[in-house]
Amino acid sequence: MLNLLPLLAIFFIMYIFMLRPQMKKQKEQTSFLGAVKKGDQVATGSGLIGRVNKLEDDIVELQLDSKTFIKVLKNAISKEATDSLKNRNILE
Questions:
Q1: What average pLDDT does this structure show over 65-90?
Q2: DSSP state of 85
Q3: What distance in Å separates the CA atoms of residue 77 and residue 82, rounded to the nearest whole number?
Q4: Which residue from 54, 49, 62 is spatially nearest to 90, judged by alpha carbons?
Q5: Which of 42, 63, 65, 79 could pair covalently with 32 via S-S, beta carbons 3.0-4.6 A apart?
Q6: Are the beta carbons of 37 and 61 closer than 8 angstroms?
Q7: What is the pTM of this model?
Q8: Every domain of the chain and the residues it spans
Q9: Could you tell me the pLDDT band of residue 92, with boundaries at 50, 70 and 90?
Q10: Is 38 exposed, middle or buried (0-12, 13-18, 19+ CB in 10 A)?
């Protein structure tokens, strides 16, 4: 029984330092995607920056320029990349 104590301690440490932060990050990303609305400036994980033009179920239409529109999956929008653009209005 005493031999299991170090193994349990390792699993507990892994949970605290690896699994718990990852679950928190995933929860924040999910709530962010639920709050995206038309007119928001967002960035995708691949680095495209655009303004949300139309929202469908899992597809978002982004306006990259005055005449350039693309469709991306909603999950492709990155919370971290969008937060880095927070106070900068890149699209005019």
A1: 89
A2: T
A3: 8
A4: 49
A5: 79
A6: no
A7: 0.78
A8: 1-35, 37-92
A9: low
A10: exposed
The percent of residues in the chain predicted with pLDDT above 90, rounded, is 79
Question: Percentage of the chain surpassing pLDDT 70?
Answer: 99
The H-or-E segment that residue 23 falls in is helix 20-35
37-92 adopts what CATH topology? SH3 type barrels. (2.30.30)
CB count in 10 Å sphere of residue 74 = 15
Q: CA torsion angle for 17, 20, 21, 24 (degrees, to 10)? A: -170
Query: Hunting for tokens 């880095």 — which residue is that?
Result: 84
- The residues that bridge with 49 in the sheet, in sequence order, are 43
Instruction: Look up residue 56 and give its two tokens.
Output: 């469908």
Please, which residues have CB within 8 angstroms of residue 64's CB and are 6 or more apart in sequence?
Answer: 48, 49, 50, 70
List, in order, residues 6 or more apart from 55 with CB less than 8 Å away: 36, 37, 38, 61, 74
